[in-house]
Amino acid sequence: MAAVLTRLRAVLVAVLIAGLWACPLAVAQTRDPSGTYVVSGTAPNGQAYGPGTVAVRRQDQRFEVVWQIGTDAYAGIGLMVGDQLSVAIIDRTGSTLFIAVYRPTGQGDWQGAWAGTPGAGVGIEVWQVRR
Is the model's pLDDT at 17 over the cut of 50? Predict the structure, then answer.
C-alpha cells in the first residue's frame, strides 16, 4: 500500500506541475465542480464506456472524486487551477494510476482528457449534470 501511495503522490505532483505550468497565475477557483454527474467516455483504445456516475466533493482547497462505472471503481484527488480541474486517480486495486484534466463545457457539464499507466494514448470523458 505504501508503494501505491508513493505512486499516487508522484502523479499528484505531476498534475500540480502541469497545471501550474499551463496557468502560471495564482491558483484561483472560477467554478466549483462539486456534484454528481453521469459519466461516459472513450478509452485510449477507442472503446466507449459508461454510463456511470462520478461524484465530486470539495474538501478545503482540493476535490475528492469518485467514479463508479459498471463494476469498476476509481478514486482521485483534484485541484482547480484557473478553470481546469486536474485529478490524480487510482483504481480500486491500486495497480493503475491515471492523470486527468477537465474543463467546464457550459450548463454545469465538464469534459476532459485522461491517460493511465501502463498504457499509451489518451481517453476522453464527459460529465453531465444529473438533470
Answer: no
Task: Assess whether pLDDT exceeds 60 at residue 11.
Answer: no
Q: Which cell is 81 given?
A: 487551477
Cα distance from N-terminal residue to C-terminal residue, the chain: 38
Q: Looking at the 3D structure of the chain, how many domains does it have?
A: 1
Residues whose CB is less than 8 angstroms from the CB of residue 100 and which lie 6 or more positions away in sequence, other chains included = 76, 86, 87, 89, 112, 113, 114, 115, 125
Amino acid in position 107: Q
Closest CA to 4 of 96, 100, 82: 96
Range(s) of the domain holding residue 95 = 2-129
Report pTM. 0.78
Please check the confidence at residue 26 and state whether its pLDDT lies above 50: no
Alpha-carbon torsion angle 21, 99, 66, 86, nearest 10: 10
